[in-house]
Fold this sequence. Notes:
- The structure is a homodimer of 202-residue chains.
- In chain A, 75% of the residues lie in helices and 0% in strands.
- Chain A is mostly helical and 202 residues long.
- The interface between A and B is large, with 43 and 43 residues.
- Chain A binds a DNA duplex (18 and 18 nucleotides) through helix 1 and helix 3.
Amino acid sequence: MAYRRTADIQARLDAQRARLLAAAIELVATSGYAGCSVNAVAARAGVASGTVYNHFANKSDLLAEVFRTVVRREVDAVRGAATSSGSLTQRTTAIVETFAERALTAPRLAYALLAEPVDPAVDGLRLQFRAAFRDIIADSIAAGVRSAELPPQNASLVAAALVGAIGEALIGPLVGQPDPATVPTLVTFALRSLGASDAAHA
Amino acid sequence: MAYRRTADIQARLDAQRARLLAAAIELVATSGYAGCSVNAVAARAGVASGTVYNHFANKSDLLAEVFRTVVRREVDAVRGAATSSGSLTQRTTAIVETFAERALTAPRLAYALLAEPVDPAVDGLRLQFRAAFRDIIADSIAAGVRSAELPPQNASLVAAALVGAIGEALIGPLVGQPDPATVPTLVTFALRSLGASDAAHA
DNA sequence: GTCTATAGTTCGATAGAC
DNA sequence: GTCTATCGAACTATAGAC
């Protein structure tokens, strides 16, 4: 064979793919999916539009990769908060604060992840990533039930409710001017909803 | 003018449009958006597929009309529950039960409304209809705060959280085998989350 | 209803790597 | 010399304006 994909070439290809992905993420974070045209991504990454198709099958595939990449960060951050040591109240507070503060710090991007209408192929990923958050929170709730910090409850169902609650509540603040008390309100909401004994004083 | 749209003709057109809409709703309720192809809708309504485009600009437009029609029923039902007389606890219980029981009675349709990936044009309607539910619930919460049944809180933000919570929590039960305690669990969740004084005993 | 603009995708030509 | 990544213009489809 006359041409073989050497390690050097592969590294260059990988780097280019990463540049395209980073460019797409920046565009979504700035102006949502509407600003993330194939041409704009290519231009920002410094390549021709056709080159995008050497790395991604089509635009949906590119957007899906953007989505997965960004969501993975968020899931990891929330997992870190959920597995920190401390009481159920401390863990829950950390989870909600982590999720909400990160979203409010990058509101345009968070809106794209949580709610912005998008290609069904990408929309389907929302279901998966919400399930990931749910499972993390369900573990924390189950631990709280075992330690009697919480009354018995269906941890998975309640965790799904919490994920939906935080996500939906943030949509308004993400698109408009957020009430400065948004995060504390959500923490209180979460603690109360679980039946944590000290929720009323939060 | 050689052709005038008489009242008779108009009535026939309206009836045909209604039949198409009903057919589309039945198909979505049975097999989701995937089963709601233009051909299937036309066949079920007993017309040629081209006729569909006499009444709807395109498939997105048809689906949007399906969505609006079905959601309007649900919003009306929840509004009825929210404006019934009674305590904050009774109202909240009625709201959650109405929403959840109706969803669990027609699970495939509810899943299509709440979560199924779909054309962005239709997806955008989800934002609108969740805002409608939010406003209804926010009114109920605000009344509860005024009557001191609830502690002071941002009614709109908390209402959005509740809408998200119930919607997201239902997705699992809608696609799988629901825990029989799903609805009571969600009622308890809702009452606790608002800080209702008797939530712990629910 | 037609026309125009825009955006996703394709494809032949080119240049550079093996 | 052969192969492949890249380019960028052309194609196609769709949406919005007049």
